[in-house]
Amino acid sequence: MWEITTPKAKRLRRYHVGSSMARTIEVVDYDPLWIAAFENEAAVLNAVFGERVVEVHHIGSTAVPGLDAKPIIDILVVLDNTDDINSFDRAMEDAGYRVRGECLDATIPGTPGRFYFTKETNGVRSHHVHVYAKGHWEILDKLAFRDYLRSHNDKASAYGELKRRIAAEYRFDNIGYMRAKDGFVKSTLLEARHWYAKE
Fold this sequence. Notes:
Beta Polymerase, domain 2, five-stranded mixed sheet, alpha+beta
């Protein structure tokens, strides 16, 4: 069987290899050690992106104290621009990440302008990195959603309970898990946008 070895083919293979890998959905109690895990990885990412970094934020459920979550550290990296984002692929791979690109052809498509990287630790997904250019509209959504949950314990508790329930139902179906919480996330994000604008 012939193997395509053009540079473009190699890059596409690097983006998509392992994309069908089965994952077990596990939601656990909040762990204060997630803060240190973020800080350690932020130092790695600052070293990778260097002077191009504008901001690095801990986002997602592990960034909300007391919130049950999948034990995966989500990190938002804001760069001055992402025109040459591919130039960082090798350094990210050396740091243990898989380069995923924009994931526009995924079952649940990614967002244009968001560049996605994933890391596994001891064979288990441990980090998600979302890289944007400064000014991308989704940056504020990520921060607003996080800060809203941090400031509204009742909403965070409801979200945690929802995730526990659907994690049991969709234990081996990440797409089903994401779709099952989509309504809650979207409605909460609308509330978060209004709240964040007033802060």
